[in-house]
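Look over this entry.
=====
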Amino acid sequence: MSSKRDFFSKYAVKVDIVKPKRTVFVIRPDTVRDLFKDLIEQHGYESFYISTIVGTDLPGEGKIRLDYYVVLLPEEETIVIRTYLDRNNPVIDTLVDMVPGVFNGECETHDLLGVFFRGNPYLKRGFFVSLDVAEKGVYPLRKDSGV
């Protein structure tokens, strides 16, 4: 476990603790893909899974926060990889080709918040929201969406 924690720490620009014993590693958005590529190479596909991706609109800060909830195995310890995107241009590289389990999280975050996962060929509007909402260009989880 400590070697995995050390691994995440080398990417972190900040480390926080939320909830009892839940570590949050804040990293730059341009390093998310590199982090997971290195994690797979150093620890293997069997050493973790991404349970969910949570996107949060922060209009007052001009950002969208992405939290990747990662379960480390075999410890079953959940950590959070957190990054922030520019709210006016929320683009980040996809992980779907390396970690197929992010399919749902990336598609949902795209459809509800407008985050574009560069390289994900499955992104489309109307995946989680109704087509009438999608056709209006509304992202329901944006705090100024009016939905």
Summary: The first strand starts at residue 14 and ends at 18. The mean pLDDT is 92. Strands lie at 14-18, 22-26, 48-58, 63-72, 77-86, 91-93, 116-118.
